[in-house]
Amino acid sequence: MSTTKAISADDFTRFAEYFYRRTGIHFDASKRYFVDRRLSDRIAATETQDFNGYFRLLRLNPTGSETQILTNLMTVNETYFFREAYQFDCLTDSILAEVVRYKSANDPIRIWSMPCSSGEEPYSLAIHLMEHWPHIDRYDVEILGSDIDTSILANARTGIYSPRSVQGVPPHQLKKYFTKLRDGNWQISQDLRDSVEFLRANLNQPADVARFTRIDVIFCRNLLIYFDDMSRRAAAEAFYETMSPGAFICLGHSESMSRISSLFKVRRFGSTIVYQKPLTGDAFA
């Protein structure tokens, strides 16, 4: 039976402030149950007995390993293939036509999925490009997937998915790009696993973001809803610095860059709204 002491309101506030500084993710009082359960689990696992002992371990651990373990537990990773697929259509129907105008012949097109979770989004991008972009053989396309959760990145590299995750994949693509395993799960092909580079990245850590340069398209969907206004503005500025002039960013359907930052132009392609870093010398509309 666990002897872990209850986590107080003050404990929760101290932890929430610490986690916010480290990740930019804001936990308000409505998340008490979610946070307290995970903290209690780690207090028991580390045998630190109470919050104060665990919080001391968390802050003073020289390798940062416990902070990473806790971060993995605190982040949400539910996704599936071809989620909000209208943005993939926009990518191949409209966005890439503009991107290639500012690319020189030997420049790669760089697409960044952030956060990539267990890989469904970047692999969906790879499949959609091969199936729907007629110029895929003319350009070197680099797809990058990043997440703050190291355990979920390991899953992404393995590329094994439940039937629920692949239920939106058309049957002919499922047959073409996946192998059904004995346990009923599906594994994406080795070629596709090799086509995506997965990296651990914390958007709140400048050193992590600095590894991403000359990005042409960013898919950052349903992350900023977990940030407060200050963190959202910082994220927008961080993305801006990684992007090539003229590059695009796609957000989730409930998110709006216009309410976060004036750095980007609003672009409409049919009913799809995306955001563009102006080309050098462009004026905002």
Can you tell me about this structure?
The chain is α/β, with parallel strands linked by helices. Helix content is 41%, strand content 18%. It has 11 helices and 10 strands. Strand 4 and strand 5 (186-188) form a beta hairpin. The model has no long low-confidence stretch (mean pLDDT 90).
How far apart are the first and last residues' alpha carbons, in Å? 63 Å
Main sheet characteristics:
7 strands, mixed
The shape is globular
Following the backbone from N to C, one meets helices and strands in this order, namely HHHHHEHEHEHEEHEHEHEEE
Mean pLDDT level? 90
> What's the number of extended β-strand segments?
10
Kindly report the spatial arrangement of strands forming the biggest sheet.
6-2-1-7-8-10-9
What class would the helix/strand composition place it in? alpha/beta
Our estimate of the beta-strand percent is 15-25%
Number of helices: 11
Radius of gyration: 20 Å
Helix content: 40-55%
State the assembly state of the protein chains.
single chain
Q: What are the segments in which pLDDT stays under 50 over at least 5 consecutive residues?
A: none
